[in-house]
Design a protein that fits this description.
Blueprint: H1 2-7, E1 13-16, E2 36-40, E3 43-47, H2 58-82, E4 87-92, H3 98-108, E5 111-116, H4 120-126, H5 134-147, E6 152-155, H6 158-166, E7 174-176, H7 194-199, E8 206-210, H8 226-231, E9 235-239, H9 245-252, E10 258-261, H10 269-275, E11 278-281, H11 295-301, E12 306-309, H12 315-320, E13 324-327, H13 332-343, H14 346-363, H15 366-382
Parallel strand pairs: 1-3, 4-5, 5-6, 6-7, 8-9, 8-11, 9-10, 11-12, 12-13
Antiparallel strand pairs: 2-3
Helix pairs in contact: 2-3, 11-14
């Protein structure tokens, strides 16, 4: 988004952590303890240090988020006074940084926009990462009060916009800002992906999961697929990193037909997504409509069908309908059956894949989505 806006002539500054995700390790060319500055994608990036736990859990995640909120606050306040932006845009997660962003906006008379990628507070309680009770009511009440103070609150799916309404955000302030995909960078290849030859998978049907391997993705479901897929001659490829990866590695060690890849460089993303004949998108049932997997856009743009864990009526179910197969979240047997059905039916894969590509172009294209958001930004600032 920053690169796109900078190319349109906007002046941007970004306050961010040093790169650490998804490996939960600070990148070698950055510091966990120092504030740093760099030019990146047409913007000045101001890196604020933070604590990165080696084993992220409920308590250590809270310290992790609080550390960035604390170290980024003085940077945000200084930039508000010295640079005087017209708009302060902050993304949640991490919601812990939102109060500082709101304060910075009010300090310089800028408009404040909060964009929610997933409802991390709701998800933390729903997934059992935080305990409930009175603590839950207090935290959710504080979150709702904070949301209502922003001039604009957006999120990535219609069902999530409805959740904003339930939290008391007025209709004139809430809106939809979908994740997007660069449909020129991610597109069906004319031939086979180079990764097929590298992995020795030429002529093999490939089921691919490519993305974060964290607590909210439900990737443990994929373990159930390994045996039946191998027996049917279907390769299972998993690419990514995150807190759940060690469990996947332990459970899948030595299994035939399974390939575990590290996070791939950005320039190989299209090759990776085109490795798939079938994309896999597991999801935990208790995360429905609290998150909308951002990896979906690339899957659709690659022109391959998706097998997703999604309950009827959810936003993910509607996004997949007609371009893949949905199964009950967390149901490994149902996901296995769906993958094997597609593996046996190349024509159906082509039909669903073409529909997936068409949907990406129609609903998830980067220029259309960011163009609409830029117009909303102008209206907000002018108001």
């Amino acid at each position: 988004m920053v690169a796109w806006l900078a190319a349109r002539g906007h002046d941007l500054r970004v306050i961010a952590a040093p790169p650490y995700y998804p490996d939960w390790r600070i990148a070698a060319d950055h510091s966990a303890w120092l504030w740093q500055r760099e030019r990146l994608d047409g913007a000045l990036v101001l890196r604020s240090p933070l604590y990165v736990p080696r084993q992220p859990r409920g308590a250590t995640r809270l310290v992790h988020l609080a550390s960035f909120a604390a170290t980024s606050l003085p940077v945000a306040l200084f930039e508000a006074v010295a640079w005087r932006p017209q708009l302060v845009f902050t993304v949640a997660p991490a919601l812990a940084s939102a109060p500082g962003a709101l304060l910075a906006a009010r300090l310089c008379g800028a408009k404040a926009w909060l964009h929610i990628q997933d409802f991390e507070v709701d998800a933390a309680f729903s997934l059992g990462l935080l305990s409930g009770g009175g603590w839950q009511r207090a935290v959710l009440g504080g979150e709702a009060a904070l949301l209502r103070r922003f001039d604009r609150v957006s999120t990535i799916a219609e069902a999530m916009v409805e959740r904003l309404a339930a939290k008391g955000v007025p209709s004139g302030r809430r809106g939809l800002f979908r994740n997007w995909v660069d449909c020129q960078a991610i597109r069906p290849l004319d031939g086979a992906s180079k990764l097929r030859a590298e992995l020795g998978l030429d002529g093999t049907t490939v089921a691919l999961y490519a993305g974060a391997m964290g607590e909210k993705q439900g990737v443990e479901t994929l373990i159930e697929l390994a045996g039946p897929l191998a027996a049917a001659g279907v390769a299972l490829v998993l690419a990514g990193a995150g807190a759940a990866r060690p469990r996947l590695e332990a459970a899948l060690a030595g299994r035939p037909g399974v390939h575990l890849l590290a996070v791939q460089p950005a320039e190989r993303l299209n090759e990776l997504l085109n490795l798939a004949d079938i994309h896999l998108l597991p999801q935990r049932a208790d995360a429905a409509d609290l998150v909308m997997p951002s990896k979906l856009t690339g899957m659709l743009a690659s022109g391959r069908p998706v097998v997703a864990g999604a309950a009827p009526g959810t936003e993910l179910y509607r996004a997949i309908e007609g371009s893949g197969i949905t199964v009950p979240p967390g149901d490994g047997a149902a996901m296995t059956d769906a993958v094997l059905a597609l593996a046996r039916d190349p024509q159906r894969r082509l039909t669903l894949g073409a529909a997936a590509r068409a949907r990406a172009l129609a609903e998830w294209d980067r220029d259309a989505i960011l163009g609409a958001v830029e117009r909303q930004m102008r209206v907000l600032v002018d108001a």
